[in-house]
Design a protein that fits this description.
The structure is a single chain. With 162 residues, the protein is an alpha/beta fold. The chain has two domains: 81 residues, no CATH class; 70 residues, no CATH class. 48% of the residues lie in helices and 14% in strands. The protein has nine helices and five strands. Strands 1-2-3-4-5 form a five-stranded parallel beta sheet. The two termini are 21 Å apart.
Length: 162
């Protein structure tokens, strides 16, 4: 679930979710919020407090589009991320672009050392997916793996364990 900079910086998200958890039988560990690097630059202290509150409630947090904005490695140290989503612009360079492949390999290696899962975004070719898996990337998203589905088809696929 994507969170906007306004939502992260409002200071109201964590109290709202505490109320929701008290009223609804949901497992917070099954919900992952996604934020972009861009969302963090407006009010770092409030962003960090919000994310720490989400983690205390048991929610998971992903840093989306990693590498497209300011790419401060401090985010990986100061924020409680569970997942780092490697932007498509890097995935596109994993084949036939030595520097691109090296950067992706370093992102994956660093993430593993920090116990942060990696998701590669925008995978469109089998060779990209094979290379990303060889580099140790945990998960992938993109048309090569699955195209968007109508709700009914997606639910049927999930019901069948797919």
């Amino acid at each position: 679930m994507n969170l906007s900079a306004k939502t992260i910086g409002s200071g109201r998200l964590v109290p709202f979710l505490k109320t929701c958890l008290a009223e609804q039988p949901i497992q917070p560990g099954t919900v992952q919020f996604e934020i972009t690097e861009h969302s963090l630059i407006y009010d770092f202290a409030t962003s960090r407090a919000t994310m720490n509150g989400l983690k205390q409630l048991g929610f998971k947090i992903a840093l989306d589009d990693f590498g497209t904005q300011y790419s401060s490695l401090n985010y990986l140290v100061d924020m409680p991320f569970d997942t780092l989503k490697i932007d498509k612009s890097y995935v596109d360079k994993v084949l036939g672009h030595k520097q691109g492949a090296i950067i992706v390999a370093m992102i994956v290696s660093l993430s593993k050392q920090l116990d942060i899962a990696t998701v590669a975004e925008g995978i469109e070719k089998e060779a990209q997916w094979d290379t990303l898996r060889d580099l140790g990337c945990d998960l992938g998203q993109g048309y090569y793996l699955a195209k968007p589905l109508p709700e009914e088809t997606a639910l049927r696929l999930l019901d069948n364990g797919g």
